[in-house]
Hints:
Elements: E1 19-32, E2 42-52, H1 63-74, H2 76-79, E3 83-85, E4 90-94, E5 101-108, H3 130-134, E6 143-156, H4 158-164, H5 170-189, E7 193-195, E8 198-200, E9 207-211, E10 214-227, E11 230-243, E12 246-247, H6 248-255, H7 266-273, E13 277-280, E14 283-286, E15 289-294, E16 299-305, E17 311-317, H8 318-325, E18 337-340, E19 349-350, E20 356-357, H9 369-379, H10 383-397, H11 403-407, E21 410-423, E22 429-430, E23 436-437, E24 456-457, E25 460-464, H12 471-484, E26 488-489, E27 497-499, H13 509-523, E28 531-535, H14 545-556, E29 559-563, H15 570-583, E30 590-591, H16 592-595, E31 607-615, E32 626-633, E33 642-649, H17 672-683, E34 691-697, H18 704-722, E35 729-736, E36 743-745, E37 758-760, E38 771-775, E39 787-794, H19 800-810, H20 825-838
Helix pairs in contact: 4-5, 12-15
Amino acid sequence: xxxSKRVPMARKEVGSKGEPRQLLANHFGxxxxxxxxxxxxxxxxxxxxxxYEDGNPVEAKGVGRKVLNQVCETxxxxxxMSFAYDGEKSLFTLGPLASQRLQYPVVLEDVxxxxxxxxxxxxxxxxxxxxxxxxxxxxxxxxxxxxxxKYAAKIPxxxxxxxxxxxxxxxxxEAVRVLDIILRQHSANQGYLLVRQSFFHDNxxxxxxxxxxxxxxxxxxxxxxxxxxxxxxNMDVTTTMIVKPGPVVDFLLQNQxxxxxxxxxxxxxxxxxxxLRIRANGVEFKISGLSDNTCRNQKFLLRxxxxxxxxxxxxxTVHDYFTRQKLIGLNYSADMPCIxxxxxxxxxxxxxxxxxxxxxxxxxxxxxxxxxxQLVEKTRQKPQVRRQALEDALRSSRYDDExxxxxxxxxxEPNFVRLVGRVLEPxxxxxxxxxxIIPRNGRWNFNNKKLYEPLMIGRWAIVNFSSxxxxxxxxxxxxxxxxxxxxxxxxxxxxxxxxxDGCFIREPPNVRVERMYAKLRTTLPHEKPHFLxxxxxxKKNSDIYGPWKKKSLVEEGIVTQCxxxxxxxxxxxxxxxxxxxxxxxxxxxxxxVELCNSIPFVSAVPTLILGxxxxxxxxxxxDVPSIAAVVSSxxxxxxxxxxxxxxxxxxxxxxxxxLFKPVANTNKDEGIIxxxxxxxxxTSFKRKPQxxxxxxxxxxxxxxxxxxNIELSQIIEACKHLDEKWDPKFTLIIAQxxxxxxFFQANARDQTNVPPGTVIDNTVCHPKNNDFYLxxxxxxxxxxxxxxxxxxxxxxGFSADEVQELVxxxxxxxxxxxxxxxxxxxxxxxxxxxxxxxxxxxxxxHSETSSTHGGLTSASAPLVPQLPRLHKQVINSMFFC
Length: 881
């Protein structure tokens, strides 16, 4: 019998616990007045196809709007037509076009160049080779593009009224999508950079330098949302990274942190510059690469007409062409490669000093740790500043002047939506000596208190890769702080600091790690240490980290803690000890309700809690596998102790592929869930979980059905495979941080963030689905970003208050810190486990490796390399903590 498709569950009720609090949300109410009389009450949807004369489709990115604008300028019947175009294949109008199918040929300058020079005349560029040079006069020849506009459907404006009443239907979703496309069209007409529903303008006041030739460009997000309170416009301040405009050489100097062009690594430069856009001689081009030779030596065949009218050919260098033929002086680029803006087989070169980076060009490479820190530091805004910025953005956007919005009768309220939130009481924590702590403002400390389960570490040593760390002071502080927290760091067996020999610091990281372990064995030949404290070089993102963790956790089975101390004090060491104790098997604190077995549903019945996340490689690295991490609770009825299972999978695939993994022609299952269930049985009095609560991070609303019908189904299959008679209940909760709803205190004089524990499940939440926002953390810097939780499936039967309090409590079980965290601890641990295991492999070399275990079945796709299995002595530890 076919199993019916699961859909997100509907909301049964709203919560009532907590102190009511008047709040504002960055949503603006939408009203619908009577549309203009000449409007027939429908949005008309048309499919748009563009092709060249030879029938090949136009695929160059960003060309669609340029072509459609040309159509409207050329043909009278479209000249005064208001439309919304998504930039690709969909066009929307208010009222029908003249015919259900319209075909227009338009003449457009070569789509490879974005702008033309003075008087509309593009500049020439030198080509390599005979046939390439012949193309110079034709490169900018206008091209004919055929535009085919075909009627697809019509969407009633009545659907917007449904959205205004808080009704979410397929038609209302289509109508809201049209409204969002209208906003995009409005911003495109004003010259904004469009990034989905976020818009950025070229304005020096909105750009801030974050180093490496990269700027953070502040803009605003703007989208319509169907909520319990009706249709609203959600606006938020947002930032994207752009390439710093200016000379290409200046960008490379900053990007590679060098002072002199002679020190530029041109191999790195080639990777960095590929597909970026430059301006040369007044024309924009996309970079395809760099020349193999320097400007002084790079040659091409120049064809010119002689005095007798005959075409003459001679070889000339790019340098001589520009200095002698074009009379353009070159000051410093003669011995640098040229910028290639042509095709691989038809190169087209410019000296690098004639090239400038164009403005508003997105930077999509991964940021360094320093750049991330700079971005956070320079773009954060206090709540009151953010409120003012949003009010200014709404005012300056002038949506009331947008023709299609105005014609369809839509108006936007100028004030923030008001709502009532609730502030939940923080959970009571139990620490050493059964002492209780009640967190204040989402924080607590261990001053004059001991850890709940402090451990004695009998054999430990320090390995030191840093030449600047005073290890004597460090050892003294560790022992003193450990004693104060109830931990024992014994010095009876080992009191050793193994220093790296200075002559090896320029060796590759893996070589340095092997040498350090060889020295460790020589220094401590008879007994292996239980724990190693590793002092990394001064920089936090040290290359030593990955090889050291892999060697320790995979091959040696030793618990290890890495530090890169700049300031060593009691607070720093205490924070380090919290991580060490949790990794080594101890517990720093518990929830009081956890120890009293009084968590609704969870304490009464064996319950497994899972945190699941998928981590992807940096943008543009499709060759890097994604990493799926599943952390699972242990030792029920505890909910604060976890282990992790981490696997690689196909690049950029969001659904976890290894939850249930039957082996062909056997009765075996090598999936993550079987591993998790067997561990739960071992640590929970040989009882299977009767309830499984799943927290899933990193998925968008469009992927909810996949999580419900693919991942949850795999988990259920894994359970049935283990025991056919076993039928646990499931609750599935999605956590989202990547959204644009923010909350503010309603009192204008109160410029602080909303207090920790603030929960909202009304007004701006989904009109039908079971969702809520929670600000568990104390927002000390900038404006608090709430976590948006969606309860997609609940067989256990939590009430609204019970599920909200469970989520809130799990934000206080994170063993690494003494603050409530913004996401439930299981998801935070899944992030950490995936990030740490990612350091184990050199993914940039993986395409040359292969694996018969877990590889892709497609013959054309590369095999996905497997992560090494952790040593049996650490596999069940909180190594990721």
